[in-house]
C-alpha cells in the first residue's frame, strides 16, 4: 500500500510539474508572439510593455547593443511611421528553469531581412513574463559565408580597430 501511495504521489508531482512547465511555455509563446505582433502593427507601448525596464536588444549590426531607453529612442521613429518591423516565428524552442521564474528561447524567424535567428531570456515579474534580453542575428548559409565575410571585411576591420583602441 505504501508503494502505491508513493507512486501516486510521485506521478502527481511529475504531472503537476509538467503541467506547470507547459503552462509557462504557452504563456511565453504568447508574450513573444504578442511582442512581434506589436512591432508589426507599430504599437510602441505594447511592444515595450513586453520588455523589462532594464531590457536589452542586440541587433544585427555589431554596434547595436541597445539598453531599454536607448532602444526606445532608436525605434520610436520607426513606430511613428506606422510599421516598425515584422518578425514571424517559423520555429521556436523554449526552456524554463525549475523554479519557473526564468526562461530562455531561440527561434527561427521570417523577416524583411529573410531568415533570421532570435534568442532571448525572459523573467517572470509580478506574475508576468517579460523579455529581459533579446539577440537578433541574420542566418547566413555556411556555403555563402566567405562572400559575406568579404562584404563586411572593411567595416569589421574599422570597428575592430576602434574597439581595440578603447580597451587600451
From TrEMBL:
<keyword id="KW-0732">Signal</keyword>
<protein>
    <recommendedName>
        <fullName>SnoaL-like domain-containing protein</fullName>
    </recommendedName>
</protein>
<dbReference type="InterPro" id="IPR032710">
    <property type="entry name" value="NTF2-like_dom_sf"/>
</dbReference>
<feature type="signal peptide">
    <location>
        <begin position="1"/>
        <end position="20"/>
    </location>
</feature>
<dbReference type="InterPro" id="IPR037401">
    <property type="entry name" value="SnoaL-like"/>
</dbReference>
<feature type="domain" description="SnoaL-like">
    <location>
        <begin position="28"/>
        <end position="141"/>
    </location>
</feature>
<dbReference type="Pfam" id="PF13474">
    <property type="entry name" value="SnoaL_3"/>
</dbReference>
